[in-house]
Amino acid sequence: MKYILIQADGMPDRPIKELNNKTPLQVANTPTIDKMTCISEVGSVNHIPEGFKSGSDVGNLSVLGYNPRKYFTGRSPLEAASIGIDLGPNDIAYRCNLINLVEINDHLIMEDYSAGHIETSKAEKIINYLKKYMDNDEFVLYPGVSYRHILVWKEGKMNLETTPPHDILEKKIKNFIPRGDDSLKINEFMKKANALIKKLKNEDSEIGKVKVSDIWLWGQGKKTTLPSFFDLTKKNGSVISAVDLVKGIGRCASMNIINVEGATGYLDTNYLGKVESGLKELESKDFLMLHIEAPDETGHEGDYKKKIQAIEDLDSKVLSPLLEGLKQIEEEYKILLVSDHPTPIELRTHSYEYVPFLIHQRGMNLSNHDFKGFSEDIVNSTQNKLDDGYKLIYKFLDL
User: Fold this and answer.
1) Is residue 272 located within the same domain as residue 234?
2) Which of 164, 208, 216, 314 has a CA 20 to 30 Å removed from the CA of 112?
3) CA distance 352 to 330
4) Distances (CA, A) of 310 to 9, 116, 294
5) Over the stretch 133-154, which tens digit does the pLDDT of each residue have?
6) What is the mean predicted confidence (pLDDT) over 376-391?
7) Is-contact 287 245, C-beta < 8 A?
8) What angle do CA 156, 158, 164 make, to 5 degrees?
9) Are strands 139-145 and 107-112 parallel, antiparallel or unpaired?
């Protein structure tokens, strides 16, 4: 049996006035998903335990079968693992976003948490420029993908209160800068980066055109240690994602990480390349996690039209060719479609609702419902609810 997990990051939403009080998932044209739903088991699941912030760090740990209450140490250590950073026992990793702040009425406002979804090549130029002036025995910057980078504070502090930049879009940043007894060094680091980015933009015409003004530090944590995915499930598996966080969880779980050229985590990602790479991995692996980031990114942007596109792309550019490719293999297969959390357009950040899931198996009718399509309506049903999200994968894997 082959097992394929499709993680549609942030796909569930809330009713939107402009969509006649329907959600993007309800409005999107998804013939492949709808056809699957009719013969699949459906239910709802909660991947964010009480007391945790709703985020892709906690959510993706849970999706892959790791109880966040036991294994979560912070977001950034997972991203650090993805790009090969070996943290010492007392090192603290911080997520470093390239962002754009604007001044309105003498207040700095978070305009863009992603520097306009900056191209990786331009982001590397900025981070490497900052490294020349800012790396020292205490702080080291590491370039990542697009706007997502890492700062390691050696023998550093993590008892600071930090805020994800996507949670404070269009808000004054003065109430959200890192705070706490040990925040001075981090805030001075951010101020120095701002001055250097301004200098680089004046010197480099290419960077001068990029919508970037600052870095933003958040999501700190110490090194993460996970038991291997194989030890938990007796399945050997691979992860395909454009996002360092998800790749980092896979690396910590001793899974095979597949890097696909042109995978961006946005609407312009190389969907076909991800599907083709996934099918190739299934020739030798039992399990594949295929992570699709665009629904989450478009939710953060607050653009329901783009989110509908992201969902329709999932249907036509991921699931449709995947099912076609799976026809070529002789083994039986199962597919789990689920999200880590909702990212509602109205909030432009993550929320805490349960999310729908479906389990599809080749050649079998697993239907336990009367739903004609896959949507948040499934969550409103009282049947087949799973409170501890990390247990879903064991159900899917028949464990």
Assistant:
1) yes
2) 314
3) 40
4) 10, 17, 6
5) 999 999 999 999 899 999 999 9
6) 93
7) no
8) 125
9) unpaired
- How many domains does the structure of the chain reveal? 2
C-alpha span between 184 and 341 (Å, rounded): 33
Residue 373 lies in a domain: yes
Stated pTM of the model? 0.87
SS3 state at 274: helix
Distance CA 238, CA 247 (A): 10
For strand 2-8 and strand 139-145, is the pairing parallel, antiparallel, or unpaired? Answer: unpaired
Q: How far apart are the first and last CA of the chain?
A: 13
Q: Quick one: DSSP state of residue 122?
A: H
Q: What secondary structure letter does DSSP report for 376?
A: T
> Are 335 and 252 contained in the same domain?
yes
Last residue of a domain, one of 221, 236, 251: 221
Strands, E, within 47-173: which ranges? 92-104, 107-112, 139-145, 148-153
Range of the domain at 165: 92-221
CA angle (20, 25, 27) in 5-degree steps: 40
